Protein backbone atom coordinates (compact mmCIF):
# COMPACT_ATOMS: atom_id res chain seq x y z
CA UNK A 1 0.00 0.00 0.00
CA UNK A 2 2.78 2.43 0.92
CA UNK A 3 4.63 1.59 -2.29
CA UNK A 4 1.53 2.58 -4.25
CA UNK A 5 0.96 5.76 -2.22
CA UNK A 6 4.31 7.08 -3.38
CA UNK A 7 5.05 5.33 -6.71
CA UNK A 8 7.92 3.61 -4.91
CA UNK A 9 9.87 0.44 -5.66
CA UNK A 10 9.52 -2.58 -3.37
CA UNK A 11 11.47 -5.82 -3.61
CA UNK A 12 11.22 -8.94 -1.47
CA UNK A 13 7.69 -8.28 -0.18
CA UNK A 14 6.47 -11.83 -0.39
CA UNK A 15 5.65 -14.58 2.09
CA UNK A 16 8.81 -16.29 3.37
CA UNK A 17 11.07 -13.34 2.53
CA UNK A 18 13.40 -12.16 5.33
CA UNK A 19 14.41 -8.85 3.78
CA UNK A 20 12.76 -6.05 1.81
CA UNK A 21 14.18 -3.18 -0.18
CA UNK A 22 11.92 -0.16 -0.38
CA UNK A 23 12.66 2.99 -2.35
CA UNK A 24 9.98 5.67 -1.83
CA UNK A 25 9.32 8.45 -4.33
CA UNK A 26 6.98 11.46 -4.02
CA UNK A 27 3.86 10.88 -1.89
CA UNK A 28 0.73 11.56 -3.92
CA UNK A 29 -2.83 12.17 -2.80
CA UNK A 30 -5.95 10.92 -4.54
CA UNK A 31 -7.88 7.68 -4.20
CA UNK A 32 -6.01 4.57 -3.05
CA UNK A 33 -7.42 1.09 -2.41
CA UNK A 34 -5.86 -1.60 -0.22
CA UNK A 35 -7.49 -4.99 0.27
CA UNK A 36 -6.09 -7.58 2.71
CA UNK A 37 -8.43 -10.19 1.12
CA UNK A 38 -8.74 -11.70 4.64
CA UNK A 39 -9.74 -10.44 8.09
CA UNK A 40 -6.37 -8.62 8.14
CA UNK A 41 -6.96 -5.34 9.95
CA UNK A 42 -8.06 -2.18 8.11
CA UNK A 43 -6.94 -0.27 11.20
CA UNK A 44 -3.35 -1.41 10.69
CA UNK A 45 -3.53 -0.32 7.04
CA UNK A 46 -4.73 3.06 8.30
CA UNK A 47 -1.95 3.22 10.90
CA UNK A 48 0.79 2.73 8.33
CA UNK A 49 -0.65 5.01 5.64
CA UNK A 50 -1.78 7.99 7.73
CA UNK A 51 1.65 9.55 8.47
CA UNK A 52 2.45 9.27 4.75
CA UNK A 53 -0.66 10.89 3.30
CA UNK A 54 -0.35 13.78 5.78
CA UNK A 55 2.69 14.79 3.72
CA UNK A 56 1.10 14.20 0.30
CA UNK A 57 0.65 16.86 -2.37
CA UNK A 58 -3.17 16.79 -2.26
CA UNK A 59 -6.08 15.30 -0.24
CA UNK A 60 -6.36 11.52 -0.03
CA UNK A 61 -9.18 9.02 0.05
CA UNK A 62 -8.17 5.58 1.28
CA UNK A 63 -10.47 2.62 0.59
CA UNK A 64 -9.38 -0.05 3.07
CA UNK A 65 -10.79 -3.59 3.01
CA UNK A 66 -10.44 -6.47 5.46
CA UNK A 67 -11.34 -6.96 9.12
CA UNK A 68 -12.73 -4.00 11.07
CA UNK A 69 -13.09 -5.85 14.38
CA UNK A 70 -10.29 -8.42 14.45
CA UNK A 71 -7.87 -9.88 17.00
CA UNK A 72 -4.33 -8.56 17.46
CA UNK A 73 -5.19 -5.09 16.14
CA UNK A 74 -7.25 -2.07 17.18
CA UNK A 75 -10.98 -2.45 16.54
CA UNK A 76 -12.34 0.23 14.21
CA UNK A 77 -14.39 1.54 17.15
CA UNK A 78 -11.15 2.12 19.07
CA UNK A 79 -9.63 3.91 16.09
CA UNK A 80 -12.64 6.22 15.77
CA UNK A 81 -13.45 6.75 19.46
CA UNK A 82 -9.98 6.88 21.07
CA UNK A 83 -7.17 7.17 18.51
CA UNK A 84 -8.90 9.80 16.33
CA UNK A 85 -9.65 12.52 18.94
CA UNK A 86 -6.17 12.20 20.47
CA UNK A 87 -4.14 12.03 17.25
CA UNK A 88 -6.03 15.08 15.92
CA UNK A 89 -4.28 17.08 18.68
CA UNK A 90 -1.24 16.99 16.37
CA UNK A 91 -3.12 19.51 14.24
CA UNK A 92 -4.95 17.61 11.51
CA UNK A 93 -8.38 16.12 10.94
CA UNK A 94 -9.50 12.94 9.24
CA UNK A 95 -12.84 11.39 8.44
CA UNK A 96 -13.50 7.66 8.80
CA UNK A 97 -16.59 6.25 7.16
CA UNK A 98 -17.40 2.63 8.13
CA UNK A 99 -19.17 1.16 5.09
CA UNK A 100 -19.20 -2.50 6.17
CA UNK A 101 -17.91 -4.28 9.22
CA UNK A 102 -15.86 -7.45 8.71
CA UNK A 103 -14.88 -10.16 11.20
CA UNK A 104 -12.56 -13.14 11.49
CA UNK A 105 -12.18 -15.34 9.43
CA UNK A 106 -13.94 -13.88 6.38
CA UNK A 107 -13.07 -10.18 6.59
CA UNK A 108 -15.08 -8.33 3.95
CA UNK A 109 -15.22 -5.06 5.86
CA UNK A 110 -14.59 -1.69 4.24
CA UNK A 111 -13.80 1.75 5.60
CA UNK A 112 -13.11 4.95 3.70
CA UNK A 113 -10.64 7.39 5.25
CA UNK A 114 -10.43 10.96 3.95
CA UNK A 115 -7.76 13.43 4.94
CA UNK A 116 -5.99 16.54 3.74
CA UNK A 117 -2.24 17.06 3.92
CA UNK A 118 -0.61 19.41 6.46
CA UNK A 119 2.42 21.69 6.30
CA UNK A 120 3.71 20.45 9.68
CA UNK A 121 2.49 18.54 12.74
CA UNK A 122 2.19 20.30 16.11
CA UNK A 123 3.73 18.63 19.18
CA UNK A 124 1.41 17.34 21.92
CA UNK A 125 1.64 17.51 25.70
CA UNK A 126 -0.48 14.87 27.44
CA UNK A 127 0.64 14.96 31.06
CA UNK A 128 -2.43 15.80 33.16
CA UNK A 129 -4.85 12.92 33.43
CA UNK A 130 -7.62 14.59 35.38
CA UNK A 131 -10.35 12.39 36.83
CA UNK A 132 -12.72 9.99 35.10
CA UNK A 133 -15.99 11.74 34.25
CA UNK A 134 -17.74 9.29 31.88
CA UNK A 135 -17.76 5.61 31.01
CA UNK A 136 -19.59 4.43 27.90
CA UNK A 137 -19.36 1.84 25.16
CA UNK A 138 -21.00 -0.54 22.75
CA UNK A 139 -21.50 -4.30 22.80
CA UNK A 140 -22.27 -5.68 19.34
CA UNK A 141 -23.48 -8.80 17.62
CA UNK A 142 -23.46 -9.34 13.86
CA UNK A 143 -24.81 -12.02 11.55
CA UNK A 144 -26.50 -15.05 13.12
CA UNK A 145 -25.59 -14.28 16.74
CA UNK A 146 -28.60 -13.55 18.99
CA UNK A 147 -29.08 -10.04 20.41
CA UNK A 148 -29.08 -11.55 23.92
CA UNK A 149 -25.30 -12.04 23.54
CA UNK A 150 -24.82 -8.26 23.19
CA UNK A 151 -27.00 -7.60 26.24
CA UNK A 152 -25.12 -10.22 28.30
CA UNK A 153 -21.70 -8.79 27.39
CA UNK A 154 -22.83 -5.29 28.32
CA UNK A 155 -24.42 -6.36 31.62
CA UNK A 156 -21.36 -8.39 32.71
CA UNK A 157 -19.04 -5.48 31.89
CA UNK A 158 -21.17 -3.01 33.84
CA UNK A 159 -21.23 -5.33 36.89
CA UNK A 160 -17.45 -5.70 36.77
CA UNK A 161 -16.81 -1.92 36.54
CA UNK A 162 -19.33 -1.20 39.34
CA UNK A 163 -17.23 -3.20 41.78
CA UNK A 164 -14.42 -0.69 41.40
CA UNK A 165 -16.11 2.55 40.26
CA UNK A 166 -19.38 3.11 42.07
CA UNK A 167 -20.13 6.77 41.53
CA UNK A 168 -20.42 6.90 37.71
CA UNK A 169 -23.22 5.80 35.44
CA UNK A 170 -21.82 3.21 33.01
CA UNK A 171 -23.62 3.42 29.68
CA UNK A 172 -22.88 0.43 27.41
CA UNK A 173 -25.29 0.12 24.49
CA UNK A 174 -26.06 -3.35 23.14
CA UNK A 175 -26.13 -3.18 19.30
CA UNK A 176 -27.33 -5.50 16.56
CA UNK A 177 -25.25 -4.56 13.49
CA UNK A 178 -27.59 -4.02 10.50
CA UNK A 179 -27.44 -6.92 8.02
CA UNK A 180 -26.37 -4.68 5.13
CA UNK A 181 -23.53 -3.11 7.15
CA UNK A 182 -21.80 -6.25 8.41
CA UNK A 183 -20.27 -9.21 6.57
CA UNK A 184 -20.19 -12.53 8.40
CA UNK A 185 -20.70 -13.25 12.09
CA UNK A 186 -19.05 -11.64 15.08
CA UNK A 187 -19.48 -10.24 18.55
CA UNK A 188 -17.45 -7.96 20.77
CA UNK A 189 -17.40 -4.99 23.09
CA UNK A 190 -15.50 -1.75 23.59
CA UNK A 191 -15.73 0.39 26.73
CA UNK A 192 -14.30 3.89 26.97
CA UNK A 193 -13.47 6.08 29.95
CA UNK A 194 -13.20 9.83 29.44
CA UNK A 195 -11.50 12.21 31.89
CA UNK A 196 -11.96 15.85 32.85
CA UNK A 197 -8.89 16.81 30.76
CA UNK A 198 -10.06 14.94 27.65
CA UNK A 199 -7.96 11.80 28.06
CA UNK A 200 -9.50 8.61 26.67
CA UNK A 201 -8.90 5.01 27.76
CA UNK A 202 -10.43 1.82 26.45
CA UNK A 203 -10.92 -1.85 27.16
CA UNK A 204 -12.18 -4.17 24.46
CA UNK A 205 -12.67 -7.82 23.69
CA UNK A 206 -13.93 -9.99 20.85
CA UNK A 207 -16.09 -13.09 21.14
CA UNK A 208 -14.71 -16.44 20.03
CA UNK A 209 -16.51 -19.72 19.45
CA UNK A 210 -17.16 -21.42 22.77
CA UNK A 211 -16.44 -18.38 24.95
CA UNK A 212 -19.51 -17.21 26.85
CA UNK A 213 -20.72 -13.64 26.56
CA UNK A 214 -20.11 -12.74 30.21
CA UNK A 215 -16.45 -13.64 29.89
CA UNK A 216 -16.04 -11.33 26.86
CA UNK A 217 -17.67 -8.42 28.74
CA UNK A 218 -15.57 -8.99 31.88
CA UNK A 219 -12.33 -9.17 29.87
CA UNK A 220 -13.01 -5.74 28.33
CA UNK A 221 -13.98 -4.24 31.69
CA UNK A 222 -10.85 -5.59 33.39
CA UNK A 223 -8.66 -4.22 30.59
CA UNK A 224 -10.22 -0.77 31.02
CA UNK A 225 -9.81 -0.86 34.82
CA UNK A 226 -6.14 -1.89 34.48
CA UNK A 227 -5.56 1.04 32.13
CA UNK A 228 -7.13 3.42 34.67
CA UNK A 229 -4.89 2.21 37.51
CA UNK A 230 -1.48 3.20 36.16
CA UNK A 231 -1.98 6.97 36.24
CA UNK A 232 -0.98 7.58 32.60
CA UNK A 233 -2.83 9.83 30.13
CA UNK A 234 -3.00 7.18 27.39
CA UNK A 235 -3.84 3.48 27.53
CA UNK A 236 -1.38 0.72 26.66
CA UNK A 237 -2.61 0.51 23.06
CA UNK A 238 -2.43 4.21 22.26
CA UNK A 239 1.20 4.65 23.40
CA UNK A 240 2.87 3.10 20.36
CA UNK A 241 0.38 4.60 17.88
CA UNK A 242 1.48 8.14 18.85
CA UNK A 243 5.25 7.59 18.50
CA UNK A 244 5.51 8.20 14.73
CA UNK A 245 3.54 11.44 15.00
CA UNK A 246 5.67 12.63 17.94
CA UNK A 247 8.80 11.89 15.90
CA UNK A 248 7.58 13.94 12.91
CA UNK A 249 6.11 16.87 14.88
CA UNK A 250 7.75 20.28 15.12
CA UNK A 251 8.85 20.57 18.76
CA UNK A 252 8.86 18.63 22.02
CA UNK A 253 6.00 16.19 22.69
CA UNK A 254 5.32 14.49 26.02
CA UNK A 255 2.94 11.72 26.98
CA UNK A 256 2.48 10.04 30.36
CA UNK A 257 2.04 6.27 30.22
CA UNK A 258 1.81 3.15 32.31
CA UNK A 259 4.46 0.46 31.73
CA UNK A 260 6.10 1.08 28.34
CA UNK A 261 5.05 -1.73 26.00
CA UNK A 262 7.33 -3.68 23.68
CA UNK A 263 5.38 -2.19 20.74
CA UNK A 264 6.26 1.29 21.99
CA UNK A 265 9.93 0.41 22.52
CA UNK A 266 10.06 -0.94 18.96
CA UNK A 267 8.35 2.16 17.54
CA UNK A 268 10.82 4.44 19.38
CA UNK A 269 13.77 2.38 18.12
CA UNK A 270 12.73 2.76 14.49
CA UNK A 271 11.67 6.40 14.83
CA UNK A 272 15.16 7.16 16.17
CA UNK A 273 16.89 5.06 13.50
CA UNK A 274 14.93 6.24 10.49
CA UNK A 275 13.69 9.74 11.33
CA UNK A 276 16.56 10.67 13.67
CA UNK A 277 14.09 11.90 16.32
CA UNK A 278 15.31 11.85 19.94
CA UNK A 279 13.29 10.13 22.66
CA UNK A 280 13.74 10.12 26.43
CA UNK A 281 11.75 7.68 28.58
CA UNK A 282 11.85 8.33 32.33
CA UNK A 283 9.91 7.39 35.43
CA UNK A 284 7.29 10.00 36.38
CA UNK A 285 8.34 12.04 39.40
CA UNK A 286 4.84 13.24 40.40
CA UNK A 287 3.92 12.47 44.01
CA UNK A 288 0.65 10.80 43.01
CA UNK A 289 2.56 8.49 40.64
CA UNK A 290 5.17 7.47 43.24
CA UNK A 291 3.52 4.14 44.03
CA UNK A 292 2.65 3.43 40.38
CA UNK A 293 4.51 2.24 37.32
CA UNK A 294 4.18 5.55 35.45
CA UNK A 295 6.51 6.97 32.80
CA UNK A 296 6.99 10.11 30.71
CA UNK A 297 7.88 9.60 27.06
CA UNK A 298 9.43 12.77 25.70
CA UNK A 299 10.39 13.35 22.08
CA UNK A 300 12.23 16.10 20.27
CA UNK A 301 10.42 15.88 16.93
CA UNK A 302 12.20 16.52 13.65
CA UNK A 303 9.74 19.15 12.41
CA UNK A 304 9.02 17.33 9.14
CA UNK A 305 7.77 19.84 6.55
CA UNK A 306 5.52 19.02 3.63
CA UNK A 307 7.46 20.10 0.52
CA UNK A 308 4.26 20.23 -1.56
CA UNK A 309 2.46 22.91 0.48
From TrEMBL:
It catalyses: a 3'-end 3'-phospho-ribonucleotide-RNA + ATP = a 3'-end 2',3'-cyclophospho-ribonucleotide-RNA + AMP + diphosphate. Residues 2-280 form the RNA 3'-terminal phosphate cyclase domain. InterPro entries: RNA3'-term_phos_cycl_insert (IPR013791), RNA3'_phos_cyclase_dom (IPR023797), RNA3'_phos_cyclase_dom_sf (IPR037136), RNA3'_term_phos_cyc (IPR000228), RNA3'_term_phos_cyc_type_1 (IPR017770), RNA3'_term_phos_cycl-like_CS (IPR020719), RNA3'P_cycl/enolpyr_Trfase_a/b (IPR013792), RPTC_insert (IPR036553). The active site is at residue 263. Residues 128-228 form the RNA 3'-terminal phosphate cyclase insert domain. It is an enzyme of class 6 (ligase). It comes from the Eukaryota. This is RNA 3'-terminal phosphate cyclase. The lineage of its organism: Eukaryota, Metazoa, Chordata, Craniata, Vertebrata. The gene is RTCA.
Amino acid sequence: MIRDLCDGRLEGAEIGSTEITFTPEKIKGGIHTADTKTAGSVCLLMQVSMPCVLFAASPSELHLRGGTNAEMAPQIDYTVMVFKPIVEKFGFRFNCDIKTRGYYPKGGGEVIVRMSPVKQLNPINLIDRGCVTKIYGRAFVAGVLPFKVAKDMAAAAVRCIRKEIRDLYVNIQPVQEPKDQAFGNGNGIIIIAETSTGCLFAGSSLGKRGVNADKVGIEAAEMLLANLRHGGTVDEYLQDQLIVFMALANGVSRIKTGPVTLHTQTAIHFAEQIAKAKFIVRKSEDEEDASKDTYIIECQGIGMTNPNL
